[in-house]
Amino acid sequence: MSEDIILATEDLTKEFAGFVAVSGVNLRVVRGTIHALIGPNGAGKTTCFNLLTKFHIPTRGRIVFNGKDVTALQPADIARLGLGRSFQISAVFPHLSVLENVRIALQRKRGGSFDFWRSAKVLDEYNERARALIADVGLEAFVDHAAVELPYGRKRALEIATTLALDPDMLLLDEPMAGMGHEDIQRIAALIRTVAEKRTVLMVEHNLSVVADLSDRITVLTRGRILAEGDYDQVSANPEVKEAYLGAGHA
Q: From CA 40, how far away is CA 232, in angstroms rounded?
């Protein structure tokens, strides 16, 4: 039986003033899997993410999501099609509560203007779904806290909740464990595993123990090109992968 590919790229390339950041990347992500994109600093991982979510325009190549060529679409169009993304830097409203942040994200699905100026009763229709999402990411105890008051790991969980509010088919996570302590890493890893039960996840991650624990498939980038692909055992045994990481100071 052929694999069900939810996201594919063909010859995906991005040049910046003569510098080739991503070169001829042919990526295949199977629906319902956790797929990790790893590599040394400067390998082109985040640039790939920016190309996939249309924050960069490819120099050449093609992007296909759910069978549709999305190469020419805008970021908002990509999100509406079901490709959701979180960023390295938290993108929540710091002075709104956890509930308000998720509720605003739920409003985005309407495709119209936001209801900031409307009666609070208009927004109450979102409360049940917002509280369910908050529970899904383990933030029930923080529902009325301002986002700025949250510990770092909890803030990343809130960002994932706001991304899930769009009900994406596929979730792109850009370094979800960056800057976290051991307890937060365990919590977010468990959250990603839960999220992946109903959707596809593509993540950029530097923490190789997390990659080994979570990933069904791994793509290794170096100097903008795919160096290796496979499961963790295959990739970690690859001499070129070892050289790329050790040469960049990674263990």
A: 16
HSE, side-chain direction, 13 A CA sphere, residue 122: 8
- Taking CA 169 as the corner, what is the angle to CA 103 and CA 30, rounded to the nearest 5 degrees? 155
Q: What DSSP element (H or E) covers 69?
A: strand 68-69
Interatomic CA distance for residues 54 and 52, integer angstroms: 6
Task: Dump pLDDT digits (tens) for 57-88.
Answer: 999 999 999 999 999 999 889 988 999 887 65
The CA distance from 8 to 234, in Å, is 21
**How many Å apart are CA 156 and CA 151, to the nearest integer?**
9
pLDDT of residue 126: 86
Work out whether strand 83-86 and strand 170-174 pair parallel, antiparallel, or are unpaired. Answer: parallel
Phi first, then psi: give them for residue 65, nearest 5 degrees: -125, 125
Give strand ranges (E) for 32-161: 34-38, 60-65, 68-69, 83-86
Sorted by where each starts, the structural domains of the chain and their CATH numbers stand as: 1-82+169-251 (3.40.50.300), 91-167 (no CATH)
